[in-house]
Amino acid sequence: MAYTDRGGNHTVAASTWAFLLDVDNTLIDNDAVKADLDAMLKQEVGPDVEHEFWAFYDEVRHELDRVDFPEILRRFCAGAVPAPTAERISEMVNGIPFERYRYPGVLGALAHLATLGTTVIVSDGDPVFQPAKIRRAGLTDAVGGRVVITTHKESELPTVFARYPADRYAMIDDKPALLEAIKRREPERFRTILVTQGHYAEHAPSPPTADLTVARIGDLRTLTLAQLEGAAS
Do 114 and 176 have their domain in common? Predict the structure, then answer.
């Protein structure tokens, strides 16, 4: 697990609420990132090479149970793709302007949540590309450097609790199944907030099982502690 925290590696003081925020399809439109990258690959190198790239993507994700772009690029560049093509694709992936893919209202929502408690980004991913992605999107600064990169956030919550102690936690994510799993494990400690953005949220159960459901991350700019406290009532 990797941490970045502007205050160093010291555990922060306990607060009443801590907001644990996912990144992909919660703060950043990751579906749009992949669609645009796919279109660029087809235009730059053709559908055959584009297909090979996504084959490595699926292979690595299956093996490591996470998206690991450095490993994807390593395998891709080590294959039969000409060196100039491999270099061009590496530049494309590493140069994605993630700040353009922030959902509307993200920075305002993060600023508002910071008035209610401690904001912490908790994101699954590799320890190199994912923190860089979050930083380039302007999200690291927006949460005061409190970023945790995990492989499986639901199983690594005790470390998050130790690092960012709070009386109560709110998990904000686009994946209904993950929110359900966390709520089962910590029913009294957690409030779950489902943001219905992205392909996971499209298949959310009806009625939603999360304590709160919002259509867009920007909707959290008006969240109140009274709503949060009464969410499971």
Answer: yes
Task: Enter the pTM of the model.
Answer: 0.89
Same domain, 13 and 80: no
H or E element, residue 187: none
Helices (H) and strands (E) in the chain, counts: 10, 7
Burial of residue 186, with CB atoms counted within 10 A of its CB: 0-12 exposed, 13-18 middle, 19 or more buried: middle
Q: What is the pLDDT of residues 4-35, one digit of tens each?
A: 343 444 455 556 999 999 999 999 999 999 99
Rounded Cα–Cα distance for residues 156 and 173 (Å): 16
Which uninterrupted H or E stretch holds 157?
A: helix 157-163
Bridge partners, 210 (sequence order)? none
As a whole number of angstroms, the distance between CA 114 and CA 121 comes to 12
Q: Total domain count for the chain? A: 2
Edge-first strand order for the sheet with 15-21 is 2-4, 147-150, 118-124, 15-21, 166-173, 190-195, 212-214
Task: Check whether residue 107 and residue 186 sit in a common domain.
Answer: yes
